[in-house]
Amino acid sequence: MFFRQYYLECLSHASYLIGDTATGRAVVVDPQRDIVEYLADAESHGLRIETVLETHFHADFLSGHLELAERTGATIGYGRAAEGRTEFPITTYADGDLIRLGEVELEVRETPGHTPESISIVVYPRGASAAPYGVLTGDTMFIGDVGRPDLLSSEGVTADELASQLFHSLHEKLLTLPDDTKVYPAHGAGSACGKNLSTETVSTIGEQRRMNYALAPMTEEQFVEAVTQGQSVAPLYFSFAANRNREQRELLPEDITVPTLTITEVLARQREGAVVIDARDDTAFAAGHLRGSINVGLGGRFAEYAGEVMTPETPIVLVTPPGHEPEAKVRLARIGFDNVVGALEHPVATFLAQPELVERLSRLSAEALAERIRAVDDLVVIDVRNPGEVALGGIDGALPISLPALFTQLDVLDRDAPTVVYCAGGYRSAIASSLLRSHGFTDVSDLVGGYTAWQTLSPQR
User: How far apart are CA 235 and CA 311, in angstroms?
Assistant: First the structure.
C-alpha cells in the first residue's frame, strides 16, 4: 500500500493519496486546489488516480477535485447525502460501500454531524476482512476535538441537530474501530473548523478515546452542549467556499502568472474598488506602505485572513516581497479568491520615489498603550482575538470583536474615535489596524507584541 498525508500548514489542511502498488489504482482524498504534488507522487510510484473522494463540502478551502478530474479522468465521490447537490457529475457512496483498489480496500462510513453529507473512510491494506490500518475522519473527528456543527444554520440545519448526529457518528461509526486504528483528520491546529485542535496530525482511536474532550463519557445532551459552545466566529469566506465547492467553476491554471502594474494603474484600480493586499511582514508594512492598503503577511495564515477583510469577488492588487507574487496568487486561489488583477512593480522603489502616496502604521508598545489609556478618555481598545483567547484574559475595558467579525462591524464603530487594536502577538492586529485605516478610520494604532507584551507590564500599569 502507498499512503501519504499532505499537510498544508497555512490552512491547517490535510489531504491524502492512497494506492495499491500491485494494481496501480489510487484515490486522492480532500485535495487542495493546486494538485502538482499528487500528480508527481502518483507518477513516481506507478499509480493511476481513478477517484477523488471528498469527505464533505469543505468550507475553509477550495478543493482540487475538478482539477484532478480534468488532469486524470478520475471520478469524484461524495457521501450519499450529497446526491443532487453539485453542478458536476459525482458518484455517491452509502454506509458500508467498499472501494477496491486491489488488496487495498476503502470502506465508506457515513458520519454526519459537521455536515449532513460527511463521511469517513476506513483504510484496509489487506482487504476489509482484515484489520484496518487507519481511518480518514474528514471534519468528523480531529486530534483533540470534533468538527463544529454550527456552520449550516443559514441553510436551515440547526447546530443542535447536527451535534446530535455527530454524537451518534462518533460513537456508532468511529469508536467501534479497534483502538490501534490510526486517525487521520482533514485539519489540525489553527483551523476554524473546530475549537481545540491539536498540533499533531495523526493519532489513534484509543488515544482519542482517552484524551479527546468530546469523547469523554457524557450523555448526548451534554455532548450537544459541549460542542456547540465556545466556537469562534467562522471566517467570512466560509459560506462562499462551501457553495463554490459544489459548482462547476474555472480550473486553476497550471502556469501561474501575475501581471505587473505601475503605480498609476494600481491607483486607478483602487479608485475602481480593488483592494491592495500588502503581503510583506508587518515590520516592512509599518515602515511604509501605499495608503489604503491592507497588511496580510505571507508568513502567516495569509489566505484565511485575506478572506476576512474583503468580499470574495473583490479585485485584488498584490504587494509582495520580490518574486512571491505567484505564491500569493496560489494561496488566494486555495480559498477561491481568483480575482488577482496584478501586482505593483518595484514597490519599495515606488514608495521612495513617491512618498506622498505612502503612510506608516502607528504602533504602540505596551507601556505607551498603558499611558494612552490613562490619558485619553474616549480611547477605543478593540480585542481581535477569538472568544476562547479572550476568555483567558484581556485588557480591561477592551471591546471584543474577533478579526472575522471586524469587517462586518465597521459601520457600528466610530471612525473618528482614537482606536487601538490588539491580538495575541501582533500579526492579526496589523491586519485589523490596516483594515480600519483602509475604511476611513482616522486615528488607529496597534499593540506591538499583542496581549503577550501587555502581560509583561508590572501590576502598577
Answer: 11
The band of 259, judged by pLDDT with boundaries at 50, 70 and 90, is very high
Residue matched to cell numbers 500588502 = 278
377 in Cβ contact with 359 (< 8 Å): no
The DSSP code sequence of 39-56 is HHHHHHTT-EEEEEE-SS
Rounded CA-CA distance 241/91 in Å is: 21
pLDDT confidence of residue 153: 57
Strand order across the 363-364 sheet: 363-364, 444-447, 419-422, 380-383, 399-400
Tens of pLDDT, residues 197-220: 888 999 999 999 999 999 999 999
The burial class, CB within 10 Å (0-12 / 13-18 / 19+), for 49 is buried
pLDDT at 245 over 90: yes
Average pLDDT of 51-59? 97
- Is the overall model pTM greater than 0.70, yes or no? yes
**What type of residue sits at position 100?**
R
Spatial distance between the Cα atoms of 415 and 439, rounded to a whole number of angstroms: 8
> From CA 263, how far away is CA 282, in angstroms rounded?
21
Max CA separation in the chain (angstroms): 74
How many angstroms separate the CA atoms of 162 and 173, rounded?
15
DSSP-derived 3-state class of residue 271: helix
DSSP-H helix ranges across 136-186: 159-169
CA atoms within 13 A on the CB side of 197: 28
Question: How far, in Å, are 94, 331, 414 from residue 238 at the CA level?
Answer: 26, 15, 28
**Per-residue model confidence (pLDDT) at position 94:** 98
**Nearest C-alpha neighbor of 112 from the set 104, 103, 120, 102:** 120
Extended strands (E) in 294-425: 294-295, 316-319, 340-344, 358-359, 363-364, 380-383, 399-400, 419-422
> Going by DSSP bridges, is the β-strand pair 13-19/2-8 parallel, antiparallel, or unpaired?
antiparallel
Is the backbone of residue 10 left (phi > 0), alpha (psi -120 to 50) or beta?
Answer: alpha
Which domains does the chain possess?
2-244 (3.60.15.10), 260-359 (3.40.250.10), 363-454 (3.40.250.10)
Query: SS3 breakdown of the chain: % helix, strand, coil, rounded to 5?
Result: 30, 20, 45
Which residue from 139, 106, 99 is spatially nearest to 121, judged by alpha carbons? Answer: 106
